[in-house]
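Model it.
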Amino acid sequence: MKSLHFITRFPSISLNLCFIFITLCPSLISSQTCEKLCGDQKLKYPFGSGQGCGDPRFQKFVTCDRAQKKLMLNTHTGTYTITSIDYTNLTIYIQDPSMSTCSSSQPSKGFGLDWDAPLTFLDSNVFALLDCSIASSPLYTSRTSLNGNGTNSTTAGSGNIVPLCDRESGPICSLLYSCPTISRLNLPISTCCIYTPLDLGPAYEIDLQKLECSSYASIYSFNGKDSNPQGWKYGIGLKYRFSVKNDFPSACSICEKSNGVCGYTGTYNAFICSCVGGVNSTSDCYASASMRNDGQKILPWHMRTWLASSLTLFLTGVLF
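Modeled.
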């Protein structure tokens, strides 16, 4: 009778309690997990679909644009579409929309990596700086010297080491001038080929304004067509690392084998294994909650038990 008296006397409180219970339950039941796809791009460690997914070091650099359904690389020079990921060779390939190719030549500001990004240029990447000013570009006006390892370089007036363009043995630049769009650039030929990304300096920066070049092309594969630039693969290849030792974490390997997605949580970014049904595990997903037949995610049993018990004790204390 006491509980009936309470409900009769305080109907608004009772309704509010029911409303809170109904409101909280669906939000818990429909809790999201880390996803395995971004559009049609497969996601595996160290990349993730959102906050708390993948490796926290990559979170601000590689993100999933849900509106465009594309995986994107973010640097201080812009945002670039990741076209593919080679998980075996730890390489991502990106496209710079302002970069020139054999079929398109356009002005560009260049490309650069953030200093703290866990990424480096692919060794096989070839960069061609296009339409550079022979009169004033540091690539041409600096004095030539011979450095310690026997290769040529130029020393700019500011004291910075700037790579000397390959003017003799490399056919890539001359082949690029067989492309109609590039052949329309200023003559005489003022294209500079750089074969080693390290030549860009410790900042891994292609600063075209500083180098006084109007654009650049980047080739990461000749695709078996060394003499035909129309068949080359244009884009930028970037290597990534898991850690200093570059070992794939064993905990993450176990998680992925159990149909989970590697992620992190908490102040210290502790490892978690994100499982189907919105369950986070510290090991694997073999014992996690499964999906209901209608596809709705359910709470793990211990969460359901805790929620029901807590609500029961709360109502018992209030009503009696």
